[in-house]
Design brief:
The complex is a heterodimer of chains A (439) and B (487). Chain A has a 6-stranded mixed β-sheet with strand order 1-2-10-7-8-9, with helices on both faces. Chain A has a 5-stranded parallel β-sheet with strand order 11-15-14-12-13. A 4-stranded parallel β-sheet of chain A has the order 5-4-3-6, with helices on one face. Chain A is elongated, with a radius of gyration of 29 Å. Chain A is α/β, with parallel strands linked by helices and 439 residues long. In chain A, 45% of the residues are buried. Chain A folds into 2 domains: 308 residues, Rossmann fold (3-Layer(aba) Sandwich); 109 residues, Rhodanese-like domain (Oxidized Rhodanese, domain 1, 3-Layer(aba) Sandwich). Chain B has 3 domains: 147 residues, Lyase, Ornithine Decarboxylase, Chain A, domain 1, CATH 2.40.37; 241 residues, Alpha-Beta Barrel (TIM Barrel), CATH 3.20.20; 39 residues, no CATH class. In chain B, the strands form 3 sheets. In chain B, strands 1, 14, 15, 16, 17, 18, 19, 20 and 21 form a 9-stranded mixed β-sheet that branches. In chain B, α3 crosses α4 and α3 packs parallel to α11. Classes of the chains: A alpha/beta (439), B alpha/beta (487). At the A-B interface, β5, α5, α13 and α16 of A face β7, α9, α10, β12 and α12 of B.
């Protein structure tokens, strides 16, 4: 397949059957619409292109900045599209909680603005929130902005009315499925697809999935937040269900490990929500049915999200020479010396003084002739072995003499014969009136 | 349509619960001292200080915990605090006088906020730390020290308008502090007037619950401190202000359900929950909810000392080290100025029910002796149910849950203590008390006034002795002083 531009590769994503051995449904064929295979990585590529394309020529002429309130995939797609057309892109958000997504957007050249948190000393009469001000700024004439407005723009839904929906129909040989399940973010994909499918099969059951209110799943809104979405119409859905972050991760694990679909949390949530809904009806069915759910994006950008919630899934084997394995006895056996004794020892035997604080703090003030190895780097070094010879006496120093004791114990265990810890640390050193220098 | 009641039960810790269960005492107090009546619990503030101090210990940090006095005017709380290791942050001449009179030595007092010449003079004369808002204020202080031959004044510089690396973190513009971009001029002035002022550190206070903004500000302060050291100054402390928050509600589910239903009510999908369709900042436009919910996040699982812990555990935005580690290894003390968070669970406001009646449209109005200025929860955006303290004896059996509007004693349409329908497990009767829990932070006396010559609530300090509750009028309370009463 040959294309003139990457944007031509948007859409026409595969519809892939989930094996009954995985989902266990007896009477339902379950299909995943793999929107993660769009070129920029998500279902939002369609909406971004649909919203931006008609206004790009004018924007290029004027040199406008493309602006969207997005914390993830729409921003990613728009950043790419803006970059391809030589336009700046700015994303305004209060929801960017996934660091990889943030870094990726910066890499793509996006400017990101995070909205301030809610005020602590609340003035209930002031309803002029930052978002309202931004909307006002964007809607001024000749503002210099192309605001794609994903939560309200009909072009968002349009992308799925003309693309995603008809593709599903075509791949099911013109027969709409009996069930359609989608997570609700901007409501663009679920609204557009549901409308196409329902036209073909008025008996279709549409399930919209939202995040549990106390939870956070990237790309899904919670039951209150959907009411703030212009494209959201409760009549689109026969059922609105909630999924939790834990369920979304369970779902993505099945898709990742059993189905070869490297789906992110939104796709995982859709799979979990679909299965929960379908299992309840499967037993009662007497004829074959078909169900479709949407896999929005890929897993790679959400590793820190998974690590935060389910660290055991990313478990590393324990590393050797780790401070975490020290015993109380080993810690108690460490030679800690106070500031006076340390100064005498330094003068007499010139031990290597290792300052374990951060480089910024070391640069500001330190013990003369000490060297700086930041604790996290030191720990990394020790995993490999002793970083200095056994004949070299060592004095370890940290802010209060707590971390230095731990590393001294570890070095002792590793066979170093003369390592000592500075009791009271650099703070004790300062409080004793001993000299600190700045180079 | 019959819908289940939407309660917002207050979070009540054991000490406050114990006094709320002393119903005879509460009725006796209100009968004798009038309604509304404020009760403060000095013992509780000692526990609050300890909770913050425990976070310091966990991170090996030292530095002062300064109570933001403006949260409550009580003498009992301030005197009790003076008996602990805590300090106090004062923002007016009278607050400074109050703190000095309560037993705070000047080294434990920091003076902040807009200052008139008298306030500045007394702070300088007494030797309090002066948190300097601007270069102009610094020069005013220097002139004052010179004119009166005062000793060097310890100052902190309040900074604002911090900029983040990488991602732009927007913050509300503040009318306080010196923009960090203009700090060079300020430091030059400090160096030039080293005979009049001694720089002990820098400070900020951001009016936000957002941790990311505070992390940006704290790291920026560390960098300014380094600039101070480079110039040969010897600052020691960073004051990160307050804003640690309070968790007001007992049950997260209640808060989630309530806020969802409020949105539904504004969209017209359920019967109204508020007086005249008030939306607390939300409005419906073509079936979509617009605007922003102008409410305090009353359910805050991470608040007060836990919030400080979380902030200190965050990595510094550009230097990468956890903020606590950054402070520690740069040898800086951490000062904090909690107000609301320090008086969490330290008080309750009582109001007597005068009348219960139904309007012609069927709404139930409960009128209390007290007004929206006395019971200031809603003015701060805090939605929380009062607890009904029935007058003992002659009470009919359990009644049905009711939705009521609480109205005050002013002859003013706007004097609603709540603009929302408050659900109560049973209808209150005249003579009952409504106990508004946890009002000691800004909701007790901040807005109270003499409108219509109605009395301002008296304040009573309640404390335990030998397992029973005792009380003093607030001005009569001193901590740890034998009272001569039967033990």
């Amino acid at each position: 397949m040959r294309y003139e531009s990457i944007t031509e590769a948007i859409g026409d994503t595969p519809l892939v059957r989930i094996s009954p051995l995985v989902h266990g449904l007896k009477n339902i064929d379950l299909y995943a619409k793999l929107e993660m295979l769009n070129p920029f990585g998500s279902v939002k590529d369609r909406a971004a292109w649909s919203m931006a394309r008609p206004r790009l020529d004018g924007a290029v002429e004027r040199g406008d900045t493309i602006v969207e309130l997005s914390s993830g995939n729409t921003a990613k797609a728009l950043a790419v599209i803006a970059g391809m057309h030589g336009l700046p892109f700015r994303s305004v958000t209060n929801r960017m909680r996934v660091p990889e997504v943030k870094d990726l957007l910066l890499l793509l050249g996006a400017q990101i603005e995070e909205l301030p948190g809610q005020t602590e000393c609340l003035d209930p009469t002031n309803t002029d929130d930052p978002l309202t001000r931004i909307h006002r700024m964007l809607s001024e004439a000749d503002s210099g902005y192309l605001h794609t407005d994903q939560y309200y723009s009909p072009l968002n839904t349009e992308a799925h009315l003309t693309g995603t929906g008809p593709e599903i129909l075509r791949d099911l040989d013109g027969r709409a499925p009996d069930y359609f399940i989608a997570c609700v973010g901007t409501a663009g994909s679920s609204t557009g697809v549901a409308s196409v499918l329902r036209r073909s099969n008025p008996a279709i059951e549409v399930v919209g999935l939202v995040a549990d209110k106390s939870d956070f799943i990237p790309g899904i809104r919670n039951i209150d937040e959907v009411h703030e979405v212009g494209l959201f119409d409760p009549d689109t859905y026969d059922t609105i269900d909630t999924v939790t972050a834990d369920e979304a991760i369970d779902g993505l694990l099945v898709l990742n490990r059993r189905c070869g679909m490297l789906a992110g949390p939104t796709g995982g949530g859709a799979y979990h929500g679909a299965l929960r809904h379908l299992r309840a009806v499967d037993e009662e069915l007497t004829e074959r049915r078909t169900a479709v759910f949407i896999v929005c994006d890929r897993i790679e950008s959400y590793l820190s999200y998974v690590r935060q919630r389910r660290p055991e899934l990313l478990n590393q084997p324990p590393r050797r020479n780790s401070v975490a394995t020290l015993t109380e006895a080993e810690l108690a056996a460490v030679t800690s010396i106070d500031v006076d004794a340390a100064r005498k020892w330094i003068a007499a035997e010139h031990p290597l003084v290792v300052d374990l604080r951060g480089s910024f703090a070391y640069a500001a003030l330190h013990i003369e002739d000490s060297i700086n190895i930041v604790d996290e780097l030191f720990e990394e070094l020790l995993h490999g072995g002793l970083p200095f010879g056994k004949k070299q006496p060592v004095l370890l120093a940290c802010p209060v003499g707590e971390k230095s004791v731990r590393y001294a114990a570890l070095l002792t265990r590793m066979g170093h014969p003369d390592v000592r810890s500075l009791a009271g640390g650099i703070i004790g050193w300062r409080d004793a009136g001993a000299p600190l220098v700045r180079d | 349509m019959h819908l289940p009641p939407l309660y917002l039960d207050p979070r009540v810790e054991p000490l406050l619960r114990s006094v709320l269960q002393s119903t005879d005492l509460l009725h006796t107090l209100v009968d004798g001292l009038g309604s509304p009546l404020n009760l403060v619990l000095p013992e509780q503030i000692v526990a609050s200080v300890e909770r913050f101090r425990a976070v310091y210990r966990r991170h090996h940090l030292s530095g002062g915990i300064f109570f933001a006095h403006k949260a409550n005017r009580s003498s009992a709380l301030v005197r009790q605090l003076a008996a602990t290791e805590a300090g106090i942050e004062v923002a007016s001449l009278a607050e400074l006088q109050h703190a000095l009179g309560a037993g705070f030595t000047p080294d434990r007092i920091t003076a902040t906020g807009p200052k008139n010449p008298e306030f500045l003079w007394l702070a300088a004369r007494a030797g309090a730390i002066v948190n300097v808002d601007s270069r102009a204020e610094l020069l005013e202080l220097v002139a004052l020290v010179g004119r009166h031959g005062l000793p060097r004044v310890r100052v902190m510089l309040r900074l604002s308008a911090f900029e983040a690396p990488g991602v732009t973190v927007l913050s509300r513009p503040s009318r306080f502090g010196t923009p960090v971009a203009e700090v060079a001029g300020l430091l030059e002035a400090v160096e030039r007037h080293g005979d009049a002022v001694e720089l002990i550190g820098v400070s900020y206070h951001l009016d936000t619950i957002g941790l990311a903004e505070k992390a940006v500000a704290l790291e920026a302060c560390v960098k300014v401190m380094d600039e101070c050291r480079r110039r040969g100054l010897r600052p020691r402390a960073i004051d990160i202000g307050g804003g640690f928050g309070v968790d007001y509600l007992a049950d997260e589910g209640q808060w989630q359900r309530y806020t969802s239903e409020l949105g539904n009510a504004v969209l017209g999908r359920r019967p109204a929950l508020t007086w005249q369709g008030h939306g607390y900042g939300l409005r419906a436009e073509a079936g979509t909810l617009r605007g922003t919910l102008g409410l305090y996040p009353a359910h805050r699982p991470v608040a007060a000392a836990d919030y400080l812990d979380e902030l200190l555990s965050l990595p510094a935005p550009s230097l990468g080290r956890p903020l606590a580690t950054l402070l520690l290894e740069n040898l800086y003390d951490l000062h904090i100025e909690p107000g609301r968070a320090l008086v969490d669970q330290c008080g309750v406001t009582l109001a007597k029910v005068l009348q219960v009646r139904h309007t012609s449209s069927g709404e139930c109005l409960v009128r209390v002796e007290g007004n929206a200025g006395d019971i200031g929860l809603e003015a701060r955006g805090v939605l929380m149910d009062p607890i009904v303290v029935p007058r003992t004896g002659g009470r009919p059996g359990p009644t049905e849950p009711v939705g009521v509007y609480l109205v005050g004693n002013l002859c003013l349409e706007a004097d609603l203590i709540t603009r929302r329908m408050v659900h109560l497990p049973g209808a209150p009767a005249p003579g009952d008390l409504l106990a508004f829990a946890n009002t000691a932070g800004y909701a007790m006396d901040f807005d109270a006034d003499h409108a219509q010559q109605q009395p301002i609530a008296r304040k009573v300090a309640a404390y335990q002795a030998n397992g029973t509750w005792r009380w003093r009028l607030d001005p009569q309370y001193w901590p740890n002083v034998p009272t001569g009463e039967a033990q």
